[in-house]
Amino acid sequence: MRIDTLAIVGVGLIGGSLALALKQQHAVGRVLGVGRSQANLDEALRLGLIDEAVSLEAAARADVVFVATPVAQMPAVFTSLVPHLGPSTLVTDGGSTKQDVIAAARSVFGGRFNQFVAAHPIAGTEKTGAGAAFATLYRDRKVVICADADTPPTAVDRVAAMWQATGALIHRMPAAEHDDVFAAVSHLPHLLAFALVDLLAASARADQYFNYAASGFRDFTRIAAGSPEMWRDISIANRDALRQQLAVYRARLDDFDRWLTTAAGPDVAAIERSYTRASTARRAWQRHIEHGEPMPRLANGGQVE
Q1: Are 75 and 103 in contact (CB under 8 A)?
Q2: What is the C-alpha to C-alpha distance for residues 30 and 50, in angstroms, rounded to an integer?
Q3: Which residues contact 215 (CB under 8 A, 6 or more apart)?
Q4: Which of 84, 91, 116, 160 is geometrically suited to a Cys-Cys bond with 57, CB 3.0 to 4.6 A?
């Protein structure tokens, strides 16, 4: 599928990388950019991510509009788009939460909800802005499409084809299931990384802590360099599922506290079992991501079958 005119609302890492990937594959003719920062739009023009900076009203007449803003901004973006929406314009998004975005689209689009397809590209870095975009961001990465029952299959197919042109792998999932899964594997890790860095930065010994922090700290906290605005919005939008995952995580921390302080001394066996389960699962996941090996089934208790 070739898109004659693609409009990107929010030309940063996610939107800019989509534009570059489609241009590289000759899958798009003209790319329009919409954004709050003129400096960022100028950078996107200079880098060739977009061909023209336009208003939301002009963007609404493109063949496809990709909304790549923080999720809290999407209702306002949808509201601005709808009055000017072309009869065959398809709107899709890249938000990390789906139930709230779909609810907003359904409310704002009304009878034109069939022109909206919710999606989530599972790719990114901690960097932001047009200068962070690169054409291979989505290659061999998953894109989850969360289409409602009344979303036309032809619209879903158009969005899937757009992402496949970037090299992405298409998955489909109900919105509620999506939000539960990503609360566990994305939103919780970001919250933990932000919380740890914030905790240390606010400490009276912050200088000493950061002076001695090395590769373990770097790897664990890399994602805390991400956009505070974006992750604030995601945390709030998916707060119910995120709080459930926080409760489970807190219970595991309590397990470790108990294992470290039993009356008979540390429960060495329990600690090692947990570390071993985690190490085995992490290594299996890494082989799956880097080499395409099937992810082994994990039995109850986290043991690899």
Answers
A1: no
A2: 8
A3: none
A4: 84
How far apart are the C-alpha atoms of 82 and 57, rounded to whole Å? Answer: 9
**Residue pointed to by tokens 């089934």:** 297
Quote the longest CA-to-CA distance of the chain.
Answer: 72
Which contiguous run of DSSP H or E holds residue 257? helix 239-260
Strand partners, 91: 65, 116
Residues 229-286: tens digit of each pLDDT: 999 999 999 999 999 999 999 999 999 999 999 888 999 999 999 999 999 999 999 9
CB atoms inside a 10 Å sphere around CB 253:
9
Q: Exposure string (b/e) for 152-162, b if CB count within 10 Å is 16 or more?
A: eeebbebbbeb
Q: What are the pLDDT digits (tens) for 12-49?
A: 999 999 999 999 999 999 999 999 999 999 999 999 99
Q: In angstroms, rounded to a whole number, what is the distance separating the alpha carbons of residues 23 and 50? A: 10
Cβ distance 18 to 8 under 8 Å?
Answer: yes
- As a whole number of angstroms, the distance between CA 22 and CA 122 comes to 17
Domains observed in the chain: 3-173 (3.40.50.720), 177-261 (1.10.3660.10)
What Rg, from alpha-carbon coordinates, does the chain have? 21
pTM given for the model: 0.90
